[in-house]
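Structure ticket #2291
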Amino acid sequence: MKSKIKFWMLLIIAIALGMLIGFIDSRPHWDDTGITVGMILIASAFLGFVRPQRVWIWALSVGIWIPVWDMVQNNNYSSFIALPIAFVGAYIGVLVYKLFFNTSD
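Resolution: structure written out below.
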């Protein structure tokens, strides 16, 4: 039961972080892709480290919001590059978890 609660709490956090990053990135005068990429990597790596099971959920929950914001506002599909970045970050988090805790899941 505790595991399910932790999962849902982390999912809400992941969605909120992704939406916040997407919102910041969608502002008219925001033009700093490097910071956006860094925020995606850090957020998804943190979630991958905290809960390495179902890592793909963390990557999608964080990374999908930038393309969603961009498609709605600008009808631009090029921002889907945020998804592979989120996956890289999430799997880096899992790698760090496995290096620290030496588990074989």
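Closing remark: The two ends are 20 Å apart (CA to CA).
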